[in-house]
UniProtKB/TrEMBL annotation:
Residues 1-23 are annotated as: Disordered. This is Cysteine dioxygenase. GO terms for molecular function: ferrous iron binding; oxidoreductase activity, acting on single donors with incorporation of molecular oxygen, incorporation of two atoms of oxygen. Belongs to the cysteine dioxygenase family. InterPro entries: CDO_1, RmlC-like_jellyroll, RmlC_Cupin_sf. Fe cation binds at H86, H88, H132. Keywords: Dioxygenase, Iron, Metal-binding, Oxidoreductase. Pfam families: CDO_I. The keyword Metal-binding applies.
Length: 185
């Protein structure tokens, strides 16, 4: 995976106007470009504010954009919302928190998992090698996510109490939740 400055320099800011996605390059974006995209969308609340809604029983999400190179989502979180451990298969991604706080966790085999609080105004990006878990740390968290190439499959992980890990391939259309959670939870 390369993250060259020259590629990052070609990322375009989200422009003003009604068609913010028409300026995107017609190719897959790298993780830094995706971060520029979600950071720009944070400054355009008129594009996503109307989609904000919360549910303890199912994570609320809305598609903001999708083409052959990138997809962009709005996600809303309470402290009951938990993706479980997952990767994004072939996709790089970026997340910008625009309200409240999320916790991003990364699994550590044989040790304590890493947990990072990501508050409103902060963003992060990752490549296809990244495994994480996102949970709401407040009951009003809102985040903008972008993926390239667009999400199609994801890997979902179950880690047993004795540390055994298994990966299950799921469709992006399946709402991520912990593998061992009851389906009604
Ligand atoms: Fe993710």
């Amino acid at each position: 995976m390369t993250d060259t400055a020259s590629q990052a320099d070609t990322a375009r800011e989200v422009p003003d106007g009604e068609q913010p996605f028409t300026a995107l390059p017609e190719r897959n974006l790298d993780k830094r470009e995706l971060r520029t995209l979600v950071d720009g969308l944070a400054a355009r609340p008129e594009l996503w504010r109307g989609q904000v809604a919360f549910s303890d029983t199912e994570r609320h999400y809305a598609s903001l954009y999708r083409d052959e190179f990138v997809d962009v989502w709005l996600l809303c979180w309470t402290r009951q919302n938990d993706t479980g451990w997952h990767d994004h298969d072939l996709s790089s991604g970026a997340v910008r928190v625009v309200q409240g706080v999320l916790t991003e966790s990364n699994p550590r085999i044989g040790g304590e998992h890493l947990a990072t609080a990501v508050g409103a105004g902060s963003s992060f990006c990752f490549g296809p090698d990244h495994i994480h878990r996102l949970t709401g740390a407040t009951d009003d968290a809102v985040s903008v996510h972008a993926y390239s190439p667009p999400l199609w499959r994801l890997g979902q992980y179950d880690i047993t109490e004795d540390g055994l890990m298994r990966r299950i391939s799921v469709s992006y259309a399946d709402e991520l939740r912990p593998v061992d959670a009851p389906t009604a939870a």
